Automatic annotation (TrEMBL):
This is ABC transporter ATP-binding protein/permease. The keyword Transmembrane helix applies. It is found in: Cell membrane. Residues 327-562 form the ABC transporter domain. InterPro entries: AAA+_ATPase, ABC1_TM_dom, ABC1_TM_sf, ABC_transporter-like_ATP-bd, ABC_transporter-like_CS, P-loop_NTPase, Type_1_exporter. The keyword Transcription does not apply. It holds the Pfam family ABC_tran. Gene3D superfamilies: ABC transporter type 1, transmembrane domain (1.20.1560.10), P-loop containing nucleotide triphosphate hydrolases (3.40.50.300). It is a multi-pass membrane protein. GO terms for molecular function: ATP binding. It comes from the Bacteria. The chain crosses the membrane at residues 15-33, 53-72, 123-144, 150-171, 237-258, 264-281.
Length: 575
């Protein structure tokens, strides 16, 4: 019932205060019952009713209300602190993992850091304090009752363990169900997000109704799983109620027998009647919190499993002051985790500042993997990658990010102004410098015609821009970073011819002052490069200038001929 990993990050002081406040509140309740029982017993014996009795009860009730409010404030603060702490850990982990094979899908990550952590509020703020309070409350009440009559007090105490035993038995079943429950929940969310993102595609192929039925069927399975959990919870509550009421009835019955045998006074009987239900109430409340607490424990397991994922090793150099002039790669091999076939084999090359280098090859040839390795985004490679004379492994992620940047079609534009999206790369830029960046990518005229110009707010991911405008704005933001190594991965994919020419012209100009690598599967894009490396099956099969490769490379010419044939076919088809 206690997850050690969650308990380790919980604020023990807050937890102790919550339990202490509940115990003090229980003490006030005992005082109220004692006062009430004493007044009733005296009244039954003919004594007049004292008016001060009502004042004492009122003051005690006010005290309990104050304690309840204080406990609620502590609970809110404790749960808020925990949620912030866990979400911070999850986001920091997500940034450290980056775009690696270990990273969770975005929808799963959002569900864990959203609903998953929200589920922990009930566990941490309510269930956990109630668990410790139950143990203390049972002992406090037993110590008070046993001083009046030991037999009914012992009988009620012996009935209390049946409730946690029931909880633990149900927990064994619930763990298996909840694991599948969360898997179904995250899977359903992922499929829904995918379908929503691809709605235009589903509409185009008239598959939206079929996908709707598929998601509806998955939702129905999830609903049934939820109902099964609720049914199990209700059944367990029924069992706990049986033990609670039976234990209270047994204690009261034995107290009445003791009274009949003159072993207990009227006051003692009244105390047992008033306290009997309260004796089992804390444990009963714990049982009612069990279902949501188990949800929290299940989501907690998923969250901590994610936080425990191995990360890429960090270098010791956090501030690398050298100017990046060259990159040397020697006999580089790399294999993805859980894959047998190597993604890269025996890669060796030299990259110089002021050169425009292109990586080409069909999809899956290893060029994008190699680009990630050059920016230290993947780990466990064999061979050497040196920035100048420094081994890349020795540099921290922050040191690499200060020098290099990867730009691809997955880059995101926020639903903020054009200015804010550009300043994301360099907050110190002035408006004149921002206009210069837009002029470099031939967007200044377009932005200048907009009513709000730089203050024009984009839709999410630049949906109010054309594909070419979006990519050129992403390129402008990359230029704002003033990096020394730029890797552009398929940045011209899906853009119009005009934008494609503008992007390539901008990259060629940028290559005069930085190391620029352009990754593409289309050869006609890279004919202006200073050096081309052709990738095939994780190896570099050809290297040279475009002119050299056109004359000497059979693979290059075969690829180029096939590409031209496909382009002519597409043009004929459009015609």
């Amino acid at each position: 019932m206690i997850d050690r990993r969650l308990f380790a990050i919980a604020k023990k002081k807050t937890l102790i205060l919550q339990v202490a406040i509940r115990c003090i509140s229980l003490g006030l309740s005992l005082y109220i019952w004692r006062t009430l029982a004493l007044q009733l017993s005296e009244t039954l014996q003919g004594s007049p009713l004292e008016l001060s009795f009502f004042g004492v009860i009122l003051l005690a009730l006010i005290g309990k209300l104050v304690l309840i409010r204080l406990s609620a404030n502590l609970t809110d603060q404790a749960s808020a602190d925990l949620r912030v702490a866990l979400r911070t850990k999850v986001m920091e982990k997500a940034f450290r993992l980056g775009n690696t094979s270990r990273q969770l899908p975005a929808t799963t990550l959002a569900q864990l850091s959203g609903d998953g952590i929200e589920q922990l509020e009930m566990y941490y703020a309510h269930f956990l304090p109630q668990l410790f309070y139950c143990l203390l409350a049972a002992l406090i009440l037993f110590a008070y009752l046993v001083s009046l009559a030991w037999l009914p007090a012992v009988a009620m105490l012996l009935c209390v363990p049946f409730i946690p035993i029931t909880i633990m038995l149900v927990m064994k079943i619930a763990k298996r169900i909840l694991s599948k429950y969360w898997d179904q929940y995250t899977s359903l969310g992922t499929r829904f997000h995918e379908s929503l993102s691809a709605l235009s595609v589903l509409k185009a192929y008239d598959q939206d109704e079929a996908k709707q039925q598929e998601i509806a069927a998955d939702a129905q399975k999830f609903r049934k799983a939820t109902m099964s959990l609720l049914s199990m919870q209700l059944n367990s509550i029924t069992i706990m109620d049986i033990f609670s009421y039976s234990g209270a009835a047994l204690g009261i019955g034995l107290a009445l027998i003791a009274f009949q045998q003159q072993q207990l006074t009227v006051y003692g009987v009244l105390i047992f009647i008033l306290v009997g239900a309260e004796f089992f109430l804390p444990m009963r409340q714990l049982g009612s919190l069990f279902h949501v607490a188990m949800n929290g424990i299940s989501s907690c397991g998923k969250i901590f499993d994610y936080l425990a994922l191995p990360e890429k090793s960090e270098g010791s150099i956090t501030a690398w002051q050298e100017s990046l002039n060259s990159i040397t790669v020697d006999k580089l091999d790399f294999t993805y985790e859980n894959q047998q076939a190597p993604a890269l084999q025996a890669i060796s090359l030299n990259l110089k500042k002021g050169s425009f280098t292109a990586f080409v090859g069909k999809s899956g040839s290893g060029k994008s993997t190699f680009a990630q390795l050059l920016l230290n985004q993947l780990d466990d490679y064999q061979g050497r990658i040196q920035w100048n004379q420094t081994e890349l492994r020795e540099l921290s992620s922050s040191a690499v990010l200060d020098k290099g940047i990867l730009v691809n079609t997955k880059d995101f534009l926020y639903a903020e102004s054009i200015r804010d999206n550009l300043l994301l790369a360099n907050p110190q830029l002035t408006d004149d410098e921002l206009w210069h960046l837009l002029d470099q990518v031939k967007l200044s005229a377009f932005v200048g015609q907009l009513p709000e110009q730089l203050d024009t707010v984009l839709e999410e991911n630049g949906k109010n821009l054309s594909g070419g405008q979006r990519q050129r704005l992403i390129l402008a933001r990359a230029l704002a970073a003033s990096a020394e190594l730029y890797i552009f991965d398929e940045i011209t994919s899906g853009v119009d011819i005009e934008s494609e020419e503008i992007i390539l012209e901008t990259l060629k100009a940028l290559a005069k002052q930085a190391i620029v690598i352009f990754v593409s599967h289309r050869l006609y894009n890279v004919l202006a490069a200073d050096q081309i490396y052709v990738f095939k099956d994780g190896r570099i099969v050809e290297a040279g200038t475009p002119q050299e490769l056109e004359q000497t490379s059979d693979y290059f010419n075969a690829y180029f001929t096939e590409e031209n044939r496909q382009m002519r076919g597409a043009i004929d088809h459009e015609g």
